[in-house]
Design a protein that fits this description.
Blueprint (H helix, E strand, L loop, with lengths): L3 H8 L4 H38 L6 E4 L4 E7 L3 E7 L2 E6 L3 E5 L2 H53 L1
Length: about 160
């Protein structure tokens, strides 16, 4: 049993339809890689560069090493971070992982939203109470004619 005839048929020139079917999966894989890996990574890199270029004195930051501090001074390629009273460390700008956003501002916004929700709930309760009062008045009004009719029947 020889593999030579098998290899000869495999080495024969492929047909036009087969070339398209051979190349199509590779094109799809490259497209998927671009959409799910390359493109999001480029967006994240641009956001990081924008954040690093916008650093200014007083920003609270976290470095890639996990050091928390406040920007004391900025230079062209470095930032000086105040870590503690009298302790300053100089880092490359690329060592900044993120800028910390103050939470009290978010808390105020959340408090305003919760206050609005409470006011809306109070208004809903007031409307429910008003509807219940109207329903009670309607029931009492319906009972009075029935009582009056029964009293008239007793008087006769």
């Amino acid at each position: 049993m020889s593999f030579v005839p098998f290899l000869q048929t495999a080495a024969a020139a492929p047909q036009q339809g087969n070339i398209l079917m051979t190349v199509l999966p590779f094109v799809l894989i490259i497209g998927i890689f671009y959409l799910f890996i390359i493109r999001p990574q480029n967006k994240k890199q641009k956001e990081t560069e924008k954040m690093i270029s916008a650093l200014k004195k007083g920003d609270k930051i976290i470095t890639i090493g996990g050091i928390h501090g406040v920007v004391h001074q900025t230079k062209e390629k470095t930032v000086i971070v105040k870590v503690d009273d009298g302790t300053k460390i100089e880092f490359n700008r690329s060592a900044v992982a993120s800028v910390v956003v103050d939470k009290p501002n978010e808390t105020k916004a959340a408090t305003k939203k919760s206050e609005k929700a409470k006011k809306a709930a109070e208004k809903t309760e007031e409307v429910k109470e008003a509807v219940n009062e109207e329903n009670k008045n309607d029931v009492v009004a319906e009972e009075k004619p029935a009582e009056a009719a029964s009293e008239e029947a007793k008087n006769e």
